[in-house]
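User: what does the whole thing look like in 3D?
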Amino acid sequence: MTPACMLVAVLVSSAFGGRAALSGPPARGPERPALQESDVERGKQTFMRVGCYQCHGREAQGASTGPRLGPNPLPLAAFTRAIRTPRNEMPPYSVKLLSDAELADVHAFVAARPRPHELSK
Amino acid sequence: MVDVVKAIGLEYICANPGSSFRALHEAIVNYGGNAKPELITCCHEESSVAMAHGFAKIDGRPIGVMAHGTVGLQHAAMAVYNAYCDRVPVYIIVGNTLDATERRPGVEWTHSVQDASSLVRDFSKWDDTPISLEHFAESAVRAYTLANTPPMGPVLLVADSELQERPVAADFELRIPKVTASAPPQGDMAAVVEVAKLLVAAENPVIVADRAARTPAGLARLIELAEALQAAVVDQGGRMNFPSRHPLNQSGQSRATLAAADVILGLEVNDFWGTINTYRDQLHRSSRSLLKPGAKTIAISMRDLGVKANYQDIQRFPALDLTITGDAEATLPSLVEAVKRLATGDRRRAFEARGKTLAESSSNAYERSRAEAGYAWDASPVTTARLSLELWEAIRHDDWSLVSYLNPVSGWPMRLWNFDRHYQFIGGSGGSGIGYTAPASTGAALANRKHGRLTVTIQPDGDLMYAPGILWTAAHHHIPLLMVMHNNRAYHQELMHLQRMANRHNRGVDRAHIGTTIADPNIDYAKVAQGLGVHGEGPIENPADLAPALRRAIAVVKRGEPALVDVVTQPR
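Assistant: Here's the predicted 3D structure for the full assembly of 693 residues, as C-alpha cells:
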C-alpha cells in the first residue's frame, strides 16, 4: 500500500508526451538475458513496498504520472542514476530507502514484464 | 417570482429544500406546475450547483439553484468556486430573511444574514438583494444576462422571505424586462490582422486552445483556422475544442510541438505561463522556458475582464508579445478571414507541406498510444487504458457524450477515442475542487436526456464519496447516466504528494498511505449504487468481466435510468 519510485513527474499538458524514454520497444527473442525467478519475485515485492506502482502502474506499464519501465528497461547503471538522482519530479531514492540490491531486483522485475497485447484494428 | 423565473427560461431548479425559500419552492411546484422550471431534488447544495455547472456546459444555458443564504450557500461554496474558475453560468437564488422583526425565533435567526452573497462574492460574477418585486424582476433578468456574457460565471439573487411570502395586491402588475442575449466582444480588428500576419508568415505556428469553443460553432471555427494555416493544434481540454483524431491535432506531443513553434496563439488559455514553461517540483523548485529564441506569443482571451484579486486562479504572469482582450470564439471568424486574405500561393504551398508532416506526426502518436495501451492488458486491477478501450468499444456506435475529466485515467480516451462533436467532452471542474465529477456528470446527463444521447462518465472514487447522494437524485429523476468507476481506492494525487515529501525527507514512503487511501474496508460502490436506487455492477477486478458488465449497464441506461459499473483500477 505504500507509494514511491516515481520516475517522472505529474503530467504537464500531454499524456506521456515529451519525456525521456526509460524503456523502448519490448525485447524480443533469445537475446533477452535470462532473469532469475527469485530476483523477479523479490523485485515485485520491493516494487510494491516502496510504491513504484503508484506512478508507473503495478505492471510498470506506465501512466501519465510516470513512464513505462519494462519489459526493456534502461541498463542497470542508468536505471540506478535515474532513481538516485532524478532530473525531473520523481522523488529521489537514497540507499537508505532502496538498497543497491533491492534496486537491482526492481530492475529484474520490470525487465520480466510481459510483452503488450496487440490490439485489433 | 415564479413568473420571472419562467420568463427567464430556466428549465430546471436544483435544490435541497430550505425554509428560507419555502414560498418560492411551493409556488414553483403548484402555481408554476413544476414545469420549466422543474424541481430537481438534490441531497447537498454542492451537488445542486455542480449539476447546474455540468448542465450548462452541455446545453449552453444555465439552470437554477435554490439554497439557504447561509447554510445552503456554505455547502454550495466549493461548487460555486468551480463554476467561477471554469467560466460557467450558474443561476443561484438564495433565501434569506433580512427584516429582523419578521424572523421566527430560533433557527431562522441562525439561517439569516445581513449580506448573503458576501460569502461567495470573491468568486461569483454578480449578485443583488432586491427589496421589491419590480427590483427582483429587473435584477433577475440582469443576472441572467450577465451570467451568459463572456467571461461567464455564477450569479446570485437573494430572494427575501418577506418578499416571497407577502401577499400581492390584486391590481399589482409586474413588469418583467425582456431577456436579450448580449453579443460577446470580438478582439480589436487591427490587432487581429497583426495576428493573422504573424501566423501566415510563421514556419511553425501552434494554436493552443483551452476554454476556446464555448459552442459547436467554436469547434467549427477552430477547425477552419487550423486548416487554413495547416497549423498544429494543442487542445488543453478546457472544452471540446478540436477533434481528437484530426491530422493537425498535436496534443499528444504538446511539449515538442511548442518547443518547435515560432508563433504560439493561445485561445482562452487559462495558464499561458504553465503552457510555455516547464516546472520542476523538487526541493529546489525551478522552471525553464520551453520557447525557442524569438518565438512570438499571442493570447486572445476574455480572461483579463474576469479578474478578481483574492483568489489566485489567475495563474502566473506570462509576459506575452501580444494580448487581445476579446472572446476567442467570437474573434475567430475575423481571424480566419484575415488569414485567408493574407495567404499567398507560396505560403499555401508551404502550409500544405507542413500539414503533411503534422498529419504523419499525429498518425504516429495515435499508433504509439495504441501500442502503449496493450501493456498490462490482462492485469488486475484493470489498467485505465483497458477500461477506456473496453468502454469505447461498448459505446462507439451510439451517440455518446463523455462528461468527466480525463487526467485521472491518464487521458486515455482523448488519445484513443474519436471525439469530433462539441457535446462529446466538457472539460474539467475549473477550480479542481473534488466532488465535482459525479454531480456535474449528472447535470450533463440531464441536459443530454432530451437529445437521447448516451452520457458516460469515468468516475473517480474519492470524488463520488464527497456527496454520493447524487446517485439517488439520478435515480429519482430518471436521468440516464453510465457511471464507470475509476476505483483506485485512494486520493491518488495526494498520495503521490506524500510520496514526494517522504522521499525528499529521506524517510521512505511506508506511511504515505495514512490519510490518503480509501481502503480497509474497501467500498463496494455497486452496493452503494443499489442502495440509492441505481443499477450497480461490480466490483470488477478481472478485466475480462468488464465488457459484459458494461453491456448490461448500457441496456439499463438506454431504458432511461442511471447505472454504475464499479471497476477496481490501477492508480492512473
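In plain terms: Chain B is about 40% helix and 15% strand. Chain B has a mean pLDDT of 97.
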